[in-house]
Amino acid sequence: MRLVRLALLLCILLPFASVAHASETPAEHAANVYAQQEMSAAPLHENLPDYSLPSDKLAKAQHLAKVRVALHFTAEAWGIVQLVLLLGLGAVAWMRDTALRASRNRWVQGYLFLLLLLLARVLLNLPLSLYGHSLAVKYGFSIQGWGSWFGDLGKSLALYWLIGGALVMLLFFLIHKAPRRWWLVFWVASIPIVLAGVFLAPLTIDPLFNQFEPLQEHHPDLVAKLEQMKIPADHMFLMKASAKVTTPNAYVTGFGASKRLVIWDTSLTKGTSDEVLWMFGHEAGHYVLGHVLHGVLLTLAILPLLLYLGYRLLHIVLARFGVGWRIASQEDWGALAVMLLVFAVFSVISEPVENTISRHIEHAADIYGQEAIHGLVPDPQAAVKQACDTDGESTLDDPNPSRFIEFWTYNHPAESRRAAFGKAYNPWAPGMEPKYFKKER
User: Which member of 120, 271, 281, 310 lies 3.0 to 4.6 Å from 372 by CB, making a disulfide possible if both were Cys?
Assistant: First the structure.
């Protein structure tokens, strides 16, 4: 089994990593070396020359770093343990029996079983969720009241139940019709479903949780500058994040006609206009380089391998524990909990792989953003460093996390790494070439 896991990691990571390494430019390499040397020379969790926090915020960041790591790994472990407990204590079998007694209709059975399973997991996760939100409020990251917070939790539960129920019904239909090939047929069926979901989410799901308005209505001057980064004005949106949080952020979502760059209104109240332009430049990198669609396609390419391994492990687990759990076969509604357990383990194993890929993507967007603002701001290197300082003070990012924690849990490069890289990255220097823009710009 260890060899299978290792093969899975290598199949996912090595092709991407080799391409990323091969495309590294001399200017990028020099800045990467500089950033790594700076981080290696500084003590763990202490300030760096290119990224530092005031003493009071440094102490908070150091404490918060420990809490975040503990919460992260506790949540992952608890996600696995709770499924084992629900299965081992017979709760899943009880949910299955309850659904079967409620109706002979398969749709009623499936949706009722899923509702009971989701409610159990929400309640079991609630203590950690409550603590996480109270921590965000305590440190000033969130101003969302408990009523609004529970409202969002209820909306999420309803969406998981309604959309997830349809997927569960499809899955068990395929398991019944193609017991040995359902993993392959389900993958084929998931392709249009995933693409439709990514396309529709910005239009239908996101507005359920936040208010969005065209950026042009509030910041036409900023939009004019951003159009120089190859983003159409009607694809830029402002999210009223200040109703819930205080931290800055921006993101790219959707593809095709739904593709859009979204900036939180909290980002426009912090830092200088140069810093905001770099943030937009970074997101423009995601937008122009097609990272959302590429990420979806990569996921779909990996999915059949994961589904096949899930199918094999499902049968192994059921053969070993099915009698004790009172789950007779893969067609039993209770097998869904076993599948969730298998994929929860997969998620923990694949986390560093996924985050490594994500960091490569975010690094590419950083490079694009710094090159994109060349000529739009007086000093791109200073703009990047200042933006990282402002963002770090708002979110209390650990100045110098351990390499293991960065490797395993960070989906972006550490803020200090981004700041040091930004300071050193100068593709416009003699003998250097930019990666995404022509030098004469």
Answer: 281
